[in-house]
């Protein structure tokens, strides 16, 4: 099948490459010509394991091309995926839908015939209905059907999650052709037995935000329990393991620590609350406010532990290991690690950050922090070492080698990822 994927960020670039991998002829579309030039030359503009290989293979096979022209996009065919960003509005909890609206505004007037538009971006419930009205007003003599097909991929596992998803969810209007088109698009996955769930559009939109709200709630639940564990001298990791054996609870997403960040969970729970408010159902989601505040409290708690370890933050030298919001990613959007680094610096500490992949992005957001080119360099002369993203290279650090270059002997494990005993045996005070 021929299809376009409009928006080539983490979501769109992955979707475009993976749809080509399924055998389709895909045109990736983005308004940023620099990004298009990179993708055309087989370069992924962000860190995502395995994506470059899929991208290059499909470019070489002639199944994947790119453009920044909406004329070309409209002429390419009658199936279009919308994969642009829906960030949090500035000064507001709601989602900024400007980019999604712009796709409809630019694409629809240029279409030469009937088309199906599949939205993949995470949007507030009601968006596809609103976009359908917008598209109808712009379409002359053609039928433009809007369907919602949320994406559940995780950064760091984007290719595997797209080619082997847990489920495909599709929100449609009755009597349309979107379902049939989607069954062809995802044919190879459906043959593999991956559940294909067809709902109305509002439900599909809500499936995505509910899934993310549930995951965020799970993380904040264990972090709230961690606060009690800390007060009571109990071990939250052992507790998570013990409750996680109950299949109704499950062990995944019960890792206590610095909490969630990234481009999805924080903004999605806020947009969900804002939308519920608009719909007059704000009371239903007030607990998400607490989910958000438990999460934000984690960051302050790590700063407190670091202050306690150093006596005072004024003049303290602190090594921050990790800047990405999670390992296997270079994404620093709403990164808890960088937020903590920034707070420490504001309170007078000299902070040196090291991250294996996210240093360039971090520098753009926090140019005033110092950046080292290795974990050991970051630790040089430090009074305390903070591990804030659980990259495997930090998990495998040799505590004796680190002790040979630091001034202090406190390690703060913000992700409960270090072998406590190993660090203690090497003479470290271990805090978490
Ligand atoms: C998330 C959803 O998992 C994905 O389905 C959706 O499509 C997009 O949002 P992502 O943002 O890539 O994916 O990251 P995820 O792996 O979910 O982690 C989110 C944050 O939660 C990270 O900051 C991570 O460190 C944190 N986290 C995760 C915890 O603090 N504890 C956990 O147990 C799990």
Automatic annotation (TrEMBL):
SUPFAM superfamilies, alphabetized: 6-phosphogluconate dehydrogenase C-terminal domain-like, NAD(P)-binding Rossmann-fold domains, UDP-glucose/GDP-mannose dehydrogenase C-terminal domain
Family annotation (InterPro entries): 6-PGluconate_DH-like_C_sf, NAD(P)-bd_dom_sf, UDP-Glc/GDP-Man, UDP-Glc/GDP-Man_DH_C, UDP-Glc/GDP-Man_DH_C_sf, UDP-Glc/GDP-Man_DH_dimer, UDP-Glc/GDP-Man_DH_N, UDPglc_DH_bac
Sequence ranges assigned to domain UDP-glucose/GDP-mannose dehydrogenase C-terminal in this UniProt record: 319-420
Catalysed reactions, semicolon-separated: UDP-alpha-D-glucose + 2 NAD(+) + H2O = UDP-alpha-D-glucuronate + 2 NADH + 3 H(+)
A GO molecular function held by the record: oxidoreductase activity
Enzyme class: oxidoreductase
Assigned keywords, A-Z: NAD, Oxidoreductase
Enzyme Commission number(s) from the entry: 1.1.1.22
Transmembrane region(s): none
Metabolic or biological pathway, per its Swiss-Prot or TrEMBL entry: Nucleotide-sugar biosynthesis; UDP-alpha-D-glucuronate biosynthesis; UDP-alpha-D-glucuronate from UDP-alpha-D-glucose: step 1/1
Similarity comment: family membership: Belongs to the UDP-glucose/GDP-mannose dehydrogenase family.
Protein's recorded name: UDP-glucose 6-dehydrogenase
